[in-house]
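May I ask for a protein sequence together with how it folds?
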Amino acid sequence: MMKRVFTLLLLFTAALQMLNAQTNGMTPAQQNDVQRLVEAAKSGDKQRVASLVAYPLKRTYPLSDIKSKAGMLRYFDMIFDSGLLRQIARSKAGDWTAMGWRGLMLDRGVLWMDDTGKITAINYESGKEKILLAKAIQKDKQELPHSLQQFEKPLYKIITGRFRIRIDELAEGQLRYASWSLKSGKSVPALVLYNGVFEAQGTGGNHTIMFKNEAYRYEIAINRLGTDETPGALLTVFKGEKVLLKEPGKIIRK
């Protein structure tokens, strides 16, 4: 009798492990959330898909974020093109992975969904979105002095209490820092630094970018998990190990 019970327990455990592997650790509620999105994508129902997005939805800078359902419906075909809708519609439970507090991930991060069943990030760019992004980057370049126009993509514009800062990615991944005093009306930056060092902080997307200028070190900390009470960026200036300046900053998305 005991042997039979033990055998049944082993079979039950194996079945649970197989089910968990097939659903990549998703709870029944998460599976329902995925199925709701899959059905909306299959039907091509723009209203339903747009209602399953958490706003604002960030887009690749310098494109403007999508701030509401109405905004999503205006740009829907550009963001959820036929390729992305097809990928969602054809996805199975095994294509989604539960990533703890970060939510659910489709494939290798094409799309992210939180525990309320809302889409929080889309790491996919349609052909139209790529064209629009290229135009936005070109426009951004034209607004800068000629000395700063050579970059691959802009990363951040930051305003602190005293400075306007931008960080750009140049060719071969090199990072550049440029800053202006808020009191200055000059278009040429007061300081330009190169060879920034990127350092990730944990798994939530927070990171720092460090630039050196002889004895000085400029660190920009980016807080992607911040709330309205927590600044999106923090500028810290060191001389040696002494902190000369520490100013919270706001990341500008336009």
